[in-house]
Amino acid sequence: IERTLSIIKPDATRRNLTGKINAKFEDAGLRIIAQKRIQLTKAQAGVFYAVHKERPFYDELCEFMASEPVVVQVLEGENAITKNREVMGATNPADAAEGTIRAEFAESVGENSVHGSDAPDTAKDEIGFFFSQLEIV
Ligand code: ATP
Ligand code: MG
């Protein structure tokens, strides 16, 4: 059983899509074992996305992630990291498979509704960034 860190991004919380997105996770067999709504500062978003700091979209990405509240969550299930990324769909919604979250809901490659960890080590770090052990049940 594996865990991954998911973020419902500001474009999706703004459009009241949290429930529809959570239904996609649950329908895929992912269990939401921790969840909270928070608003990041731009500096916090910058730390979270530090891996992208040399990319041209970094500043815009941090601005966007701090623009409105996000819902951060821990998803648990068999192969949760891969399964979550399948349910999310490709980064660019134009390339995302039918039925995926990004195909249905994302507005652009930047404002693409969800984040999901991409490997076991990043999942562990990203879960620890937002949650203490006591909050994960
Ligand atoms: P995430 O890490 O958010 O789950 P991802 O792994 O599919 O998404 P990454 O390559 O890690 O994609 O990019 C991180 C985020 O940066 C993307 O989800 C998107 O919000 C933003 N991003 C990526 N590429 C671009 C781009 N070309 N223009 C604008 N924003 C981008
Ligand atoms: Mg990524």
Automatic annotation (TrEMBL):
<keyword id="KW-0479">Metal-binding</keyword>
<dbReference type="GO" id="GO:0006241">
    <property type="term" value="P:CTP biosynthetic process"/>
</dbReference>
<protein>
    <recommendedName>
        <fullName>Nucleoside diphosphate kinase</fullName>
        <ecNumber>2.7.4.6</ecNumber>
    </recommendedName>
</protein>
<dbReference type="InterPro" id="IPR036850">
    <property type="entry name" value="NDK-like_dom_sf"/>
</dbReference>
<feature type="binding site">
    <location>
        <position position="102"/>
    </location>
    <ligand>
        <name>ATP</name>
    </ligand>
</feature>
<feature type="binding site">
    <location>
        <position position="112"/>
    </location>
    <ligand>
        <name>ATP</name>
    </ligand>
</feature>
<feature type="active site" description="Pros-phosphohistidine intermediate">
    <location>
        <position position="115"/>
    </location>
</feature>
<keyword id="KW-0963">Cytoplasm</keyword>
<keyword id="KW-0597">Phosphoprotein</keyword>
<dbReference type="GO" id="GO:0006228">
    <property type="term" value="P:UTP biosynthetic process"/>
</dbReference>
<dbReference type="InterPro" id="IPR023005">
    <property type="entry name" value="Nucleoside_diP_kinase_AS"/>
</dbReference>
<feature type="binding site">
    <location>
        <position position="85"/>
    </location>
    <ligand>
        <name>ATP</name>
    </ligand>
</feature>
<feature type="domain" description="Nucleoside diphosphate kinase-like">
    <location>
        <begin position="1"/>
        <end position="137"/>
    </location>
</feature>
<dbReference type="InterPro" id="IPR001564">
    <property type="entry name" value="Nucleoside_diP_kinase"/>
</dbReference>
<comment type="similarity">
    <text>Belongs to the NDK family.</text>
</comment>
<dbReference type="GO" id="GO:0046872">
    <property type="term" value="F:metal ion binding"/>
</dbReference>
<feature type="binding site">
    <location>
        <position position="91"/>
    </location>
    <ligand>
        <name>ATP</name>
    </ligand>
</feature>
<keyword id="KW-0067">ATP-binding</keyword>
<keyword id="KW-0808">Transferase</keyword>
<dbReference type="GO" id="GO:0004550">
    <property type="term" value="F:nucleoside diphosphate kinase activity"/>
</dbReference>
<keyword id="KW-0418">Kinase</keyword>
<feature type="binding site">
    <location>
        <position position="9"/>
    </location>
    <ligand>
        <name>ATP</name>
    </ligand>
</feature>
<dbReference type="InterPro" id="IPR034907">
    <property type="entry name" value="NDK-like_dom"/>
</dbReference>
<keyword id="KW-0547">Nucleotide-binding</keyword>
<feature type="binding site">
    <location>
        <position position="57"/>
    </location>
    <ligand>
        <name>ATP</name>
    </ligand>
</feature>
<dbReference type="GO" id="GO:0005524">
    <property type="term" value="F:ATP binding"/>
</dbReference>
<comment type="subunit">
    <text>Homotetramer.</text>
</comment>
<keyword id="KW-0460">Magnesium</keyword>
<keyword id="KW-0546">Nucleotide metabolism</keyword>
<dbReference type="GO" id="GO:0005737">
    <property type="term" value="C:cytoplasm"/>
</dbReference>
<dbReference type="Pfam" id="PF00334">
    <property type="entry name" value="NDK"/>
</dbReference>
<dbReference type="GO" id="GO:0006183">
    <property type="term" value="P:GTP biosynthetic process"/>
</dbReference>
<comment type="function">
    <text>Major role in the synthesis of nucleoside triphosphates other than ATP. The ATP gamma phosphate is transferred to the NDP beta phosphate via a ping-pong mechanism, using a phosphorylated active-site intermediate.</text>
</comment>
